Amino acid sequence: MRLNATSHDTIEAMPLASRRAADMVVAALEARIASGELHDGSFLPAERELMDEFGVSRTVAREAVARLAGRGLVEARPRFRPVVRRPGYDTALSALSGIVGQLMGQTGTVKNLYDTRVFLEAALVRHAALHARKDDIGVLRAALEANEAAIPDSARFYATDMAFHATLYELPRNPVMPAIHRAFTGWLRPHWERMPRAPERNRVNYLSHREIYQSILDRDPDGAERALNGHLAAAWEYVRGTFDPA
Amino acid sequence: MRLNATSHDTIEAMPLASRRAADMVVAALEARIASGELHDGSFLPAERELMDEFGVSRTVAREAVARLAGRGLVEARPRFRPVVRRPGYDTALSALSGIVGQLMGQTGTVKNLYDTRVFLEAALVRHAALHARKDDIGVLRAALEANEAAIPDSARFYATDMAFHATLYELPRNPVMPAIHRAFTGWLRPHWERMPRAPERNRVNYLSHREIYQSILDRDPDGAERALNGHLAAAWEYVRGTFDPA
DNA sequence: AATCGCATTTGGTATGACCAGAATAAAGGA
DNA sequence: TCCTTTATTCTGGTCATACCAAATGCGATT
Q: What structural domains does chain B harbor?
């Protein structure tokens, strides 16, 4: 049941699937990045150096660099020396952005992604209500107050809104969570930015945030989950018309 | 044919981003895939056709195809005509496999990913306990029975174990969830396969599954979550030694 | 020391060629 | 007629070379 037919992952013992010359170069550079020999921020060897060093043509050297860039291991802007980027959860998730953009064109994708986000975030508020520590509460409270202060300014409200939710993703202290949040918001942002904004709407959202916060403070996971679900369901109803004319 | 002319006012908004010739070809092919003109399974035009059609060199045509392949929109095996693949959630997640493989080399990554899985799966069993329908229960029960029958055969037990958990991901009827499950299992499989297996261990796991199932049947979300957490925590303790000598 | 200007470096693109595996058509045998 | 074998064509993979334009580096100028 292998649905991942993409060549990499294994350095050796690949039947006859792929035998590209660039594989060697890619593997070698990967190893250097993993070992720290090529630390984050340093420049990748120039293409003409790579061909000397590995005895390959520039075609192959270029392809190797391009593949590393596709994986996010190096940042290759046109006419700039490629910069090594130590992979993080964010770079991993950002590798999805392109393909997700394609998925967005299919009906139901936005809803599916949003539902997934709601599902995860419901679990997060529940977790917060059960396990939030005193300093966690403080951070949450600060985010809430910033959100309240930004009610008149829709642009700033959007930022503080995201920050409040981001705090929930940081509570479990698992770096994967914030990365997922950033990925979600990045994907859904285009749709959300199309949503008309108004201070009265901001106030409603703020009140939802406060309700969530209060439930967490009360150590009431069910209440927090209920509040979160209501909050995001309302937001969905508010934006669904902006892209789904049905 | 030189088309760089530098005076094209078509796209001037990108100050430092990218102005590669392959972008045009990539965009055009993306559009054809999205529109269905290039349906899933069909062949991409040959490189030499692309150069004729878009008036670019084979270098550029090749790079365009390579980039589509990197995004998972086409499946390009060496010396085979590239096959168009309509993007799905699985292809999206599989785009992560490479970069996640790199992340696995860093300490703590496996634990972080596993914790994320546990977190999500706990929410899933809770959801199942609250919203599973009669036919859902039936599927779950069938998976459980298959799991029990496979206790003596560790290989088969592994498969039915995964299938049981997969059922949980299918319950919300959100296609993103099963894709996430497949991604997680794909990433963690190498570590799990290293774990020694034995019928007695299988039996313990089966009992955990049954406990989860029973809690779902009893509409007891807290019990289901507790059982799931215990189950996966035990599994973690059992395998952590296989890669983390600490 | 700050600035300007030119030579160098470096990535992007274009050509043309050749190879090897794969697909297809042609030839041959059952 | 059908299947197997063989020759031809296709197609992607790689190499070599050359030129362009942007970015960089360095020395001369102010």
A: 21-87 (1.10.10.10), 94-242 (1.20.120.530)
